[in-house]
Amino acid sequence: MEYRKLGNSGAIVTAYCLGTMTFGKESDEATSFQLLDDYVAAGGNFIDTANVYSDGLSEQIIGRWLKSKPGILRDLVITTKGRFPMGDGPNHLGLSRKNLSEALDASLNRLGVEHIDLYQMHGFDALTPLEETLRFLDDSISNGKIAYYGFSNFLGWQLTKAVWIAKAGNFQPPVTLQPQYNLLVRDIEHEIVPAALDAKVGLLPWSPLGGGWLSGKYKRDQMPSGATRLGENPKRGMEAYEKRNADSMTWDVIGAVEDIAKARGATMAQVALAWLAGQPAVTSVILGARTTEQLADNLGAAELKLSDDEIKTLTDISKPEMADYPYGEGGIRQRSRKMEGGR
Question: Would you tell me how many other CB atoms lie within 10 Å of the CB of residue 41?
């Protein structure tokens, strides 16, 4: 599996990361252990979790797996997150020093480790000054509880503000940003990707298969059922399916992915993952497999090299719609040095 730098840090991670949101909920402990074993056996070294995944059970399962594998921790990069509620009190959530201090210690305890390689803020907190959050993270690096930090679900301006506050305060800078990103969700390319590139922050895309749509598991005008994310939750599934089913671009993209997959003797999931892993600023793609079969299929993307023509086909057909200004041609002309006149 290809190795890459973890954003602007000196740490090295594999181009595909094992996401563990399903651990303890959709994947029982035995299956979770097998997923971890298979991922490491395939050459992976990057494991992503969060304190809220299965209300802490995901971290606990990873901790028990690490304990059962003496010495393996040295070869892995472990990331977890804090921000969302782990209790009912007003201080049991957010990016305040109080909550993050307690959340970080609890994550360390559940994982059974002395430090966390990458600690991510799971979302922006408008109530807590970023200075408070960044000082806490810098202190946590200094006292050895974390090695690096990053963000998840931040907007472009939020990331840029954090980067410059860190610079002004002489704090360690963020190294990663974890956003939703796939062939069906590319709006982050307007502002977030440029902000990440400017800050040399690595992207860790979640939902790389668009909730399963890019794997080919959903069919046009056929309501999902059975062991699918939409099929297991009929009410939410129907609403999500009807919205996506009505979007003609969705089916154009799925059709293009399917055509390339058939021509290359690959699966649709592998094609979609390979496209994403090759996008600017992407450090590692988070695989959210629920079964060992899904994981094995997804890891096959590591061996798939798309041609320039295939990448262009997928990029062109999935290009997100945008207004003429500020992101369309009108905005581009406004920013061009070749432009004559303006307003």
Answer: 9
Closest C-alpha to 2, from 19, 11, 18, 14: 14
Asked if residue 90 is part of any domain, the answer here is yes
pLDDT along the chain (343 residues), means of 10: 97 98 96 98 98 97 98 97 94 97 98 98 97 98 98 97 98 98 96 97 97 90 60 61 77 97 98 98 96 97 98 96 84 76 55
Phi-psi region of 310 (alpha: psi -120 to 50; beta: other; left: phi over 0): alpha
Whether 7 and 200 have beta carbons less than 8 Å apart is answered as yes
CATH number, domain of 171, equals: 3.20.20.100
Question: Does residue 282 lie in a domain region?
Answer: yes
- The packing angle between helices 248-264 and 268-277, to 10°, is 100
Can you give the pTM of this predicted structure? 0.92
Kindly report the number of other CB atoms within 10 A of residue 321's CB atom.
Answer: 7
**DSSP secondary structure of 239-265:** HHHHHHHT-HHHHHHHHHHHHHHHHHT
Domain with 153 in it: 3-219+269-308
Q: How many domains does the chain have?
A: 1
What pLDDT sits at residue 170? 98
Give the catalytic positions in this structure.
53
Instruction: Give strand pairing partners of 177.
Output: 151, 203
pLDDT for the residue 238 = 64
Position 340 in a domain: no
Nearest Cα residue to 285 out of 216, 190, 160, 183: 183
Helix 29-41 vs helix 292-299: crossing angle, to nearest 10 = 20
Nearest to 78 by CA among 30, 113, 46, 121: 46
Residue 235: the pLDDT is 60
| Confidence (pLDDT) at 234 | 56
Residue 225 within any structural domain of the chain:
no
Angle, in degrees to the nearest 10, between helices 308-317 and 268-277: 90
Give the pLDDT confidence score for residue 333 in this predicted structure.
Answer: 83
